[in-house]
Structures are given as C-alpha cells and as structure tokens.
Amino acid sequence: MLLNYIKIAWKVLLRHPFYTFITLFGISLTLTVLMVLTSFLDHLFGTHYPETRRDRSLYIMQMIQRDTAQSGRSTGPMSFRFLTDFVKTLKTPERVTICTMYNTSNAYVGSQKIKLNTKYTDADFWRIMEFEFLEGKPYNEQNITNGENVVVINDDLKKQYFDHPDEPVVGKTIDIENINYRVIGVIKGSPVTRPFTYADVYFPYTAPKSNYQQSGMRGRFVSIILAKQKSDIPAIQEEFQSRIGRIPLPGIQDGWKYNALEVKAEPYAQNFLGTILDGGPGLRTIFFGIIFFILFMLLGLPALNLVNVNVSRIMERASEIGIRKAFGAPIRTLVWQFIVENIFITFIGGAIALILTLIMIQLINHSGWIAYADLTINFNVFAVSMLVCLIFGLLSGVAPAFRMSKLSIAEALKS
C-alpha cells in the first residue's frame, strides 16, 4: 500500500509541472537554508579540528564576582596564578591547560604592517589540542623554563611574512613588536570561530607582555580541562567546585568588595551560551525570542505557504476522493495517503536541498569569509536535516489532508 501511495505521488508530480516546481522550490530553498545553518552550528559547537576532544573537555572562561545586593557584578578572565592554584592541581583530569584568548599584535615586512592575533599558552595546550604540524614541533616545558623566545605560527602567517614560503622556516626569526622570536613550529591554522584555539602566533606564557605573574584572581587567562573519559566530567566539576567553595568571602578586587564568587567548568556549548543564559531574564527572553522568530521564518512561514499550494493541488483530486469514499474508503486511509504523498515530495525537495547545501558549503569554505572554515555535512547534520524534512512534510501535509478527507461524497464528486 505504501508503495502505491508513492507511485501515485510521483504521477501527481509529473501531471502538473508548475505546481511541482513551486512546491519543490519552496521545500528545497527552505531546507537548504536550514541545512547550512545546522552545518554552521555544528561547526561552532561540534568536535572538530583542532578541538577533536571537545566531547570530554571542560572550559573555564570567566570569573563572576557579585556584591551583597546582587546589583553589581564584575566579569572577566582569571589570572595565571589563580588557574595554577585551583585548576592545574586538580587530581581527576587527564590534563589541564592554561592559555589566553586571542589578542592583537603587529609585525612588519618592510613597510607593510601585518595585524596578528596572538595567544599565550603552556606546554599542555599542545597535548590537549590536536594541531597538525606542517613543520617543526611545539614548545615544551624546557623551552618555557629556559625563557626562550620561541613561537609557533600558522601557515597563513608563514606565507605573509617570509619571502620564500615554500621553504622551511623553522629556526628562522620573526620580529613581533620589536622583539625577535625563533620559529619552532608551523601549524595548519584554526578557524576564528574557535576562540580557544584560534591565533596566528602562539607564545609560551613566559613571553613578554603575557602578564602571567600578575597577582590576584583576575587576569587574562582561561583554562581547558581534558577528562580521561567523558564519564569523569561530573567528578571533575565536583572537585573543582569544592575548591572554589573554599575561597574565603567576602573579598576585594581592584578596590571593589564582592560577596559572591562564581567560576564554572562547563562543556563548550554550555560555556559559550553561559553569558547569555546568565544575563538575567530580559536577555534570555530576547535570545529565545530571536531563536523562535528565526525558526518561524525558516520553517513556519514556508510550511504555511506550502499548505495553500497543497490544498490547491489536492482540490483537483476531489473527484478521486469522492469515488474512493463512495467505495468505502475510511477517512484515516485518505489522510494517511495524502500525508505519505507529501512526505515523499518533501524528501525529494530534501534531496535537492542536500545537493544545494553541499555546493553552498564548498562556496563558504573557499570564500575566505571565515578563515580556515571547515563546514561539513556529517552524520549529525544529516540526521537533523532528515528530521526537518519529516517535520516539514507533516506540517505542510496534515492540514490539507484532513480538509480534503472530510469532503462529503456529493461535494467531492461535484468538484
């Protein structure tokens, strides 16, 4: 029976090319936008190069200090000393790294200025992140202890700075802010959408201007904790919070007295959205309102338009409905037939959308809009796309199916 419904749907598509074009155009365009958006969200929050262990990592991005009345708050990164004392000494994790988010600096090639995004890290940064080294190797604890002026650069900076980028540059020097550094390694760069790993130049945390010796709890550093296995994450969070809970309160930061202190070790997506979700009910309402509006515009409105198209398409088959009812076809069978037909048509549109999405993703990846963009259609993106196809088919097919199935036999035969 299901195969017969699909055959009927195919014949209906071939019978009216104009309706077919309008229907498939609306479906494929909507699903293409949704697939590209899903791929971008996966690019942002999924486990990708070089953060290939993100599924078992915890991120510590900011410290929140509040006063007694909860009316004032101070938020920002932490000092290297604080993270060394309270994070590096954790017993449960496999490894812990301390680094900065990316900062800015300048280098010069003749009179041409190159704007750089820079990052200060410890040696464990290179053990947690799985960068692809095109040349050389990362700096280690010995380089840091010796206070060596060494750097790791990405392949894009190599092309910009050196006269002969096809030749090896390990061992050569690069002048950054009037300080000479020896290049110890060259990596394939990380996308700018991954701020914990993105940079053009990576310095040891002992390099000039890192301010790693800053006293107090606040500074410019963040931390990433790697669990031995994913199931260890709750234990790591509990151990970390027990240490934070032992910090004496109230305290004073830059002359401001705070009575509450909050530092969280969270998975990446939760950490990324934490600022919005912790920003009070007003900010949360705006955020979820925008999400709902986008989903409605991308899914709701096209579905409503397709409902009208489907009603017109099915109205032409009113006589068919009348004849089938006259021979005793129940409403449930008619509704099921139209829903199956609509889902079949939607999946055809989904197949077209998949091809268009692959083209769009390749254009985005090679356009340079996002440095080192690596949007893909993996299993998660594909599964979400198929679910959207199913929902879209149901949304645009149920209402017309019910309306047509409830036509009386006489009314249907007159149409």
Notable features of this structure?
transmembrane transporter activity, Macrolide_Exporter_MacB, transmembrane, 3-stranded antiparallel sheet, ABC3_permease_C, cell membrane, 19% strand, 49% helix, 7-stranded mixed sheet, alpha+beta, 415 residues
Topology at a glance:
Elements: H1 2-15, H2 17-45, E1 57-60, E2 63-66, E3 73-76, H3 80-86, E4 95-100, E5 103-109, E6 112-121, H4 125-128, E7 133-136, H5 141-145, E8 150-154, H6 155-161, E9 173-176, E10 179-187, E11 201-204, E12 221-226, H7 233-244, E13 251-253, E14 256-258, E15 260-263, H8 268-277, H9 281-315, H10 318-326, H11 331-367, H12 379-405, H13 409-414
Parallel strand pairs: 6-11, 8-10
Antiparallel strand pairs: 1-12, 2-3, 2-15, 4-12, 5-6, 7-10, 8-11, 9-10, 13-14
Helix pairs in contact: 1-11, 2-9, 2-11, 2-12, 9-12, 11-12
Describe the structure.
- It is found in: Cell membrane.
- The chain has 13 helices and 15 strands.
- It has 415 residues and is an alpha+beta fold.
- The chain has two domains: 179 residues, no CATH class; 191 residues, no CATH class.
- Strands 5, 6, 7, 8, 9, 10 and 11 form a seven-stranded mixed beta sheet that branches.
- β5 and β6 form a beta hairpin.
- α1 crosses α11, α2 crosses α11 and α2 runs antiparallel to α12.
- The protein starts with a helix and ends with a helix.
- The mean pLDDT is 83.
